[in-house]
Amino acid sequence: MMRGKILLISPDEDLLQGLKQGLSHLKDRGITVALRRYPDEDELQRTFARERPSTVIVGLSERDAALKLIELIHESYPETVVAGAHVTDVSDLILGCIRVGARDYIGLPVEDAALRRLLQLQPRTQSSVDKEGRVACFLPARGGCGGSTAAVNVAAALGRESGQSVLFMDLDFHAGTADLCLGLNAPFTLGDAVRVGSDLENLWGKVTHRWNGIDVLAAPRNGFSVHTELIQETPRVIESARRHYDWVICDLPPAVYSSSVRVLNLTEAVYLVCTPELLSLKMARRRADELIGLGVPKDSIKLVANRVRKDDVLQPKEIAEVTRMPVPWSLPNDYKTVTDAIRQQTQISPASELGKSFAQFARGIVGPNPDAAGAGAGGALRGVLGRVANRYFSPVKPSDPQRAVAQRSSTQRAFAE
Question: Which of 91-105, 157-171, 381-395 is the least confident region?
Fold first, then answer.
């Protein structure tokens, strides 16, 4: 069912006509009203009182004036869905719209699907989603274990095998390899998802990049640009993602940083990736001890032996003895297939032995009953880790600098990065 009256605001006649033509294809679009200039606050108030639009599309031909108007509508009329529009898709302009409160962006030529998506959006004061997706994390025992490769290919296999919606989140803030290895060149990253605040609920289609049947939210390209806000707000982004996706697969950095603790509070399982080398196995044991020390239930930590060969000195049985953990998953070593996939910036071939292992892995994660599996583990993790997160990351008011300094010192001692 489409929404009510639509207000088009654009001094660009070509854009205005393009939007009108696009809307004319929708039979149940509602009444369309056009304004061929950017109104000041008084005129905007009179226009809203007279027309009472449910959706406003603002043309971006004059960037500064348009963004100022979008922000004004966003703040003054929260019951109205506002979007930006331009003759071309410009990433800078899209990002600018999102940051000031736009819920969507329309480019020419106008696609029916894009308009339908816009007109079906709910006002910010309402919630149109009630999904509670599942969260799983991949943690490498040390750098170079192939944890990111395993994580993103399991995510792709999960979407393919289950038919469910999957979001892959690159949370290795200091490396951000997903964008590079997958060839995304993503215009938006996790940093943008944090900055848009509550409007993220309706912007997942904009801040993510589609790749091999799943959505990808890339890490910021420059690790030096990662601020405390990004780390603190990541759980909120994951909670929002859970309302929109059946699965959220998180790729963690190769250490249990403070940023990881907040994420672990939301996950139902941690897949600890190691290779069949003695140092890697000892590091896996250390990582497992760190997780258990933070309150992660031991049975929620799953060891994944990666790059296993038949002639390895350490086979799964010996790996279990060194790590003192069972090995529910092992992935064969296939350097050529992995290299080809990275070179072509695509997923591991599902027809390869490694691809079949990822598919089997994905089926094992989903379990025989996708709706019920994992609920207990997730609840246990949230209950136990909530106390840990609250201890080290309780909110600090700006007016209490002494407490802020003390808390930062405590955090640095507890989770030295």
Answer: 381-395
330 CB-contact burial (10 Å; exposed 0-12 / middle 13-18 / buried 19+)? middle
Backbone φ and ψ of 139, nearest 5° = -125, 115
pTM here? 0.64
Helix (H) or strand (E) holding 303: strand 301-308
Q: Which of 326, 280, 283 is nearest to 307 (CA)?
A: 280
> CA angle 414-141-223, nearest 5°?
65
Please give the pLDDT value at position 413.
39
Q: Is the pLDDT of residue 380 over 50?
A: no
Residue 110 to residue 96: CA distance in whole angstroms: 20
Q: How far is CA 325 from CA 84, 143, 276, 279, 355, in A?
A: 53, 20, 14, 15, 25
Record the tokens describing residue 121, joined without a space.
């959006």
Alpha helix segments (H runs only) across 111-257: 112-119, 147-162, 177-181, 190-195, 204-207, 228-242
How far apart (Å, rounded) are the C-alpha atoms in residues 307 and 321? Answer: 18
Q: Delineate the domains of the chain, giving CATH numbers in brackets.
A: 6-119 (3.40.50.2300), 134-389 (3.40.50.300)
Helices 375-393 + 401-414 axis angle, to 10: 130
Q: Which of 145-149, 155-159, 240-244, 264-268 has the lowest mean pLDDT?
A: 264-268
